[in-house]
Design a protein that fits this description.
The structure is a single chain. By secondary structure, the protein is α+β, with helices and mostly antiparallel strands. The protein has 14 helices and 11 strands. The strands form 2 sheets. An 8-stranded mixed sheet has the order 1-2-4-5-6-7-9-8, sandwiched between helices. A 3-stranded antiparallel sheet has the order 3-11-10. Helix 1 packs across helix 4 and helix 9 packs across helix 14.
């Protein structure tokens, strides 16, 4: 599938995407793919490297698909604006510029991964189709427009959260939010609309999870992380992400749950999660040093504190909601 048509004008190194007008700032707002982008050679490891610089991003790429290269910077800028709306986290004067690597092949991606993450590279190299965000840097390879753009949106939100939060979110919320931003539509005037309901793949994957008996009970889901999901079968990993997509969708459909989610995000921004959970300083610092331990021990307490105290009843309601989403 080719990217939507975008018109490019190259003048004195400036790569300008021409699109429609900005939409109203809300969940289903149209966002223009307009972005002023500086294009220059990337004097790095690869002779054909290009650096695309926009307001919030520096995209280092060896991608040879000019359509993807023209589309991605404007799309990421639109996604960045949507991240603020989705999370309720306001833009600050200290916004970090996001560093992104878009490589032409998986071999180049593996090469960058080995240099970036060092001894941890084996667990990242297990990724078969997609990418990751490591310490605020996004790294993925060109999978073709249809797959590359959702990966960019997903990993871009991980990057955004790293730069805006002092405390880590539980994985059920962070991964669920990141999956939810994969749904988008582009109109014939080069405006993008981010809409979780347009994530057709997640509906299909959720249907398989429910139909093939891969459904993960909520207590187990809350304590899992992406690494544990990927370490299992591919079907289980797919079910994990689909279920998290449905979980965040369910939370956002209920005023009380949605307000609790926003409060958790605000407290994570302020570094106040420890105080609200009543966890001692040294214990919390110890958990923060081990991401998996932090998630497994604090995810359910955070859920009970901010979303619902009665996990069992919530699980019943959520399961019924998810089955309703995939009902023919």
């Amino acid at each position: 599938m080719k990217p939507p048509k975008v018109f490019a004008l190259v003048t004195l190194g400036v790569f300008l995407l021409l699109g429609g007008c900005d939409g109203v700032s809300n969940r289903l707002a149209f966002r223009s793919l307009n972005a002023t982008v500086q294009r220059e050679n990337w004097n790095g490891r690869y002779s054909n490297g290009v650096l695309l610089s926009s307001e919030h991003y520096r995209i280092f790429t060896t991608c040879t698909d000019e359509g993807v290269m023209a589309f991605l910077p404007g799309f990421m800028e639109a996604a960045h604006a949507y991240y603020h709306d989705l999370t309720g986290l306001k833009e600050t004067d200290h916004e970090q510029v996001g560093k992104v690597y878009l490589l032409a092949s998986r071999d180049q991606w593996a090469d960058v991964t080995k240099r970036l993450v060092g001894n941890q590279s084996p667990q990242y190299l297990a990724i078969q189709a997609g990418g990751y965000c490591y310490k605020g840097t996004c790294v993925f390879w060109d999978l073709g427009y249809k797959q590359t753009v959702p990966v960019a949106a997903h990993e871009g939100l991980h990057q955004f959260l790293v730069s805006h939060l002092r405390d880590q979110l539980p994985m059920w919320l962070e991964e669920g939010l990141c999956v939810s931003v994969e749904g988008y539509k582009v109109d014939d005037k080069n405006n993008v609309t981010f809409d979780p309901d347009s994530a057709e793949m997640q509906i299909s994957d959720l249907r398989n999870a429910v139909g093939r008996n891969l459904w993960i009970p909520l207590p187990k889901l809350l304590s899992m992380d992406a690494g544990q999901a990927i370490d299992g079968s591919n079907a289980q990993a797919v079910a994990y992400y689909a279920e998290l997509w449905a979980l965040v969708k369910f939370i956002r459909s209920n005023d009380t749950y949605r307000q609790g989610m926003r409060q958790m995000l605000a407290d994570a921004r302020d570094g106040a999660i420890r105080q609200h959970l009543g966890v001692g300083f040294l214990e919390f610092q110890g958990l923060r040093s081990d991401g998996r331990k932090y998630n497994s021990q604090l995810s359910e307490p955070m859920f009970r504190k901010y979303i619902a105290k009665d996990v069992e009843q919530f699980d019943k309601d959520f399961t019924a909601y998810a089955k309703g989403l995939v009902k023919d």
